[in-house]
Amino acid sequence: MISEREARLVRRAQQGDPEAFAELYERYQPTIYTYIFYRVGDAEAAEDLTADVFVRLVEKIHTFQVQDRPLLSWLYTIARNLIIDRHRRLERAPSLPLEERLIAEDAASQPAQVAERTLTRECLAKAMRHLTEDQRQVILLKFVEDRSNAEVAAILAKTEGAVKALQHRALAALRRALNKEKCYEP
């Protein structure tokens, strides 16, 4: 459910208030960027797609129904669609990239630790490719972005029960994929 404060902010944006758009951008840009970055694995592409999400927000805010769902859920939908379009254009499977902070951390680590972490991340990225789009999305939202089941449900426009079931199936599929990639031995 959308908060009254957010509803007022959206209404102001729908009336063309540039300060409302600026506040929405400041509030949601980091979250949307992180989501996109984890999906595309390229900082520059993530910045471009994030900008495109907010361009769409400005262009389409008048179509957003305040009572339907939280604005963040709508922004995730826009981001997801842009990512899908990008993947179609590039004709490649989505992957789970390295976080920029881990790259910086690796520079200060021992070579053996760097190699082990790199292999682990590469293996995880390969395993994630075996998941469905919905499974990847729930894994990213729940475990990378550390969102609650209620937040994930709102973002994906599903019930909490459906999110729990999807998460269970996603983790089982990820475990099988890790086994297949010889990354994990039960």
Within the CATH hierarchy, at the fold level, what is the topology of the largest domain? Answer: Rna Polymerase Sigma Factor, Chain: A
Using the CA coordinates, give the radius of gyration: 18 Å
Shape: globular
Helix count equals 9
Walk me through what this model shows:
The chain has two domains: 4-90, Rna Polymerase Sigma Factor, Chain: A (Orthogonal Bundle); 100-180, Arc Repressor Mutant, subunit A. Helix content is 75%, strand content 0%. Helix 2 runs antiparallel to helix 3 (43-60) and helix 7 (133-144) crosses helix 9. It has 186 residues and is an all-alpha fold.
Secondary-structure blueprint:
Blueprint: H1 4-14, H2 18-40, H3 43-60, H4 71-90, H5 100-107, H6 111-128, H7 133-144, H8 149-156, H9 160-180
Helix pairs in contact: 1-2, 2-3, 2-4, 3-4, 6-9, 7-9, 8-9
List its traits.
single chain, 186 residues, mainly alpha, Rna Polymerase Sigma Factor, Chain: A, Arc Repressor Mutant, subunit A, 2 domains, 9 helices, 0% strand, globular
